[in-house]
Amino acid sequence: MFWSQEFVDDWNDEHSPRKQLFPDALAARQKSPTKEHNPEKTSQKTAAAKKTSEREAKKAFEKAKHELAERFLQELDTTITNGKLAELSASTGGIKLIWTNKLNTTAGRANWKRETIRSRHPDGTAAGPDSTTATKHKHHASIELAEKVIDDEHRLLNVLAHEFCHLANFMVSGVTNNPHGREFKAWAAQCSRAFGDRGIQVTTKHSYDIDFKYVWQCVACGTEFKRHSRSIDPARHRCGSCREELRQTKPVPRKKKEDGDGSGGGGGGGGGGGAVSAYQAFMKEQMRLVKEENPKSPQKEIMKIVAGRWAAQKSSRAMSSSTTPDASIQEVTKDLADLAV
Length: 341
Description:
Blueprint lengths: L4 H11 L9 H7 L7 H42 L3 H5 L7 E5 L7 E11 L16 E12 L6 H19 L10 H14 L18 E5 L5 E4 L18 E5 L27 H16 L5 H19 L7 H11 L6
Helix pairs in contact: 3-5, 5-6, 7-8, 8-9
Pfam families: SprT-like (PF10263), Zn_ribbon_SprT (PF17283)
Organism: Staphylotrichum longicolle
Protein name: SprT-like domain-containing protein
């Protein structure tokens, strides 16, 4: 038999082992290097995504809050008083919504004033008090809303409902000397029933935590000082209760880089980055414990108790000293004489 290329190719195809045209998917996955799961990085990504989402939601609220407030105020008046407030204030332009930066610790405020106008007869004489057409009343009503405090739709609706009840109390019920009395509570209950499915719950006080932009905390007693602006300087200001240093906790300040020559920063940081002294650590821990043990005691009494414990601790460490515990208490109390009640 003569050599034939076609015969050789057929024989090779028949007797040679089969070659895999494409790699096995499972084997490829097992061979490929896998990225290690890092819980810390995952947590950081989740936190960053949450911050971005909150920022976008806040931007959307800022854009829509004026229209939302006007629409809900009209809905309140129509549902609760059958349009009575709009009718009474029509001659003065209706209820005005005023967004302001001057309210820092409360979210809203209702303002109302009634103006009495007496008409005169054609001859110039004043109409009598018994005349029904001689006297007219003008109602000036407005609601102030805090730009710095109202930061979401739920809070806006609840604040508006609360202040609306005040106006209804003034203008419809005629109660001006008892702002949170029986009549106000009746209006509040009516609002809560009508809009409860939207999370509206009107109480005698605004129940919410204000999101302050800046927070400082005493390194000793732990008292917090919250502000909307950077109005506290730790280099100049001290805690009003124990006169110890303040440290900013929100936002946490960035650490300053040290000078290249290794010299100190000149004391401009207010001592915030220094080590905590034994007295400061003791004060911070004991203030927490004493407040839990005596929840209704004033700050001055709590400081006296903590001072007594500090004096007792000092005397126990120095048994050989001639200083008595009573004298130590007096000494520490003297150091804390400038307490701010």
